[in-house]
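Issue 218. Parser rejects a valid record. Input:
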Amino acid sequence: MDILKRWVLKKTDSDLVNQLSNEMNISQITACVMVNRGVTNVKEANAFINPEFLDMKNPFLLKDMDTAVKRIRRAVDNNEKILIYGDKDVDGVTAVSVLYLTLKSLGNTPLWYIPSEEGYGLHKNIIEKYIREGLGLIITVDCGITSIEESIFAKENNLDLIITDHHEQSQAGLPDAVAVINPKRKDSGYPFNDLAGCAVSLKLCQALMMSYERHNDPKSPRITSFLQNHLDLIAIGTIGDIMPLSDENRIFVKHGLKSLNNTRKAGLKLLLQKFLPDNGHINTRTISFNIAPLLNACGRLGKAGLAVELLTTDSIPVAEKTLARIVDLNDQRRKLQSVNIEKFYENLPNQCDVEHDKILFITAEGIEHGVTGIVASKLVKKYNKPVVLLIIEGNEAIGACRSIDRFNILSVLEKCDDILVKYGGHQKAAGFTVKTCHIETLRNRINSIAEKELSLDVLVPSIEIDTEIKPSDAKIELINELARLEPYGNDNPCPVFLINKARVEGYSWLGSSKNHLKLKIHNDGTSLNAVVWNTKELYTSLLKTTDCIDMVVKLELNRWKDREYLQLNVLDMRSSL
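Output the parser choked on:
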């Protein structure tokens, strides 16, 4: 099913582009991209290119932070048992890891727990287990904001609870806890609400360490050193959870990537050796496509603890054994993913009208959990529609939702609150549990909501284009200049350009399956190489009928045998008018 894409050329303030170009001595192309990312003046442009480490916000601006720090210090001083309660994804395990390492450095080595078969969030039976073991304090990371009943249960049993989370609070209000630290609290005064769960955990750690400094100085050498030591974890969690790379997240990731290249953590060193054997430079793509999926595989297969062990150990032999187990789990994850994709594809035509349904709601039985979110994401990418997948087991089904831009899937679940056992997540990714007897009611209600709220215009995939360029503009010098805008990711995508009226001088199919297309184009006195990945002959008829095309591209450096040359990565193309 090939979906025609809409090309959207962004409208840019040309006067501002000229100002930035002249005052910063950069090309108009780079200036245009910066304006498209929200930059409005030279000061903001400099902050965008060079986000300052010391511009991190004061953690005590987060509500309840002072209360949380006082309670944790009391626990440390009295050598109380502390439990860190996290989530199984890469954001959750990095959140657990940074808090674990911080408390350990203060002389209180905490316990930690990440639910597996129980599902996301706090669970009464787990709380009860640790109450019997004499626990005095639970600190949640990357979860807990919707755990109203569980917080009441903990309080009734004299167990103190500190919630740190970054998910949306429920309509029922906040949990009854000693402290609830979440930039998305409805009464939050924190100036940036898109922190990852690991970043909220770091903020708690930062505040805790500051409390030992005179005047709570956030810029003391000790605090600076502490942050630099742990931003490697925060970069991984922030990128892995696809958080916007803007504001404070840009500081975390820009400096966290530097910390990663010089990390002292045994497990991270081994990871980098595995994925960067030639001591290459790590970037957001390395994390998104290599490190994060590997760490996520642990949680997907019920072994999230392995990821925490890898990230927190200071023993090379332990790290080697743990990494070997994780690599094996990732291989299992790939096989499971293949089985689940096949099953959901098999059920798709029987349960959905793929052409007319605005949302794809598919159930399956007899398959394992762990990769449902990945499968849903692949279906979203293929059909450009929101997807809800459920695995039915007995009286209950666990669902994963993935959505497209401009359609809030979490708000859809909120409208189904009365028939869900529990739910949570974000606007584009959420999960839930539902009784099997309510599945068809849920299907009908979600389809009805989508029919009313999801316009056909939103279902047409679009490519946002930064500006038009000529082939003669495409030079290695431009790529190097654009590299100053990294790190790329959510809210700061890799720049996308339009090249009009390119003349095709020749093309060939690459790969054993002939899935990739290599082109040579010419225009404006310049010839360039271009490649279209995984086309499956999508453009065969186009190239047979015309040799003059418009192209949407990214600029890339291709390295081969110690040589660098520029290559166009083609996102889409069509016949020139």
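Fixed in the parser; the record now loads. The mean pLDDT is 92.
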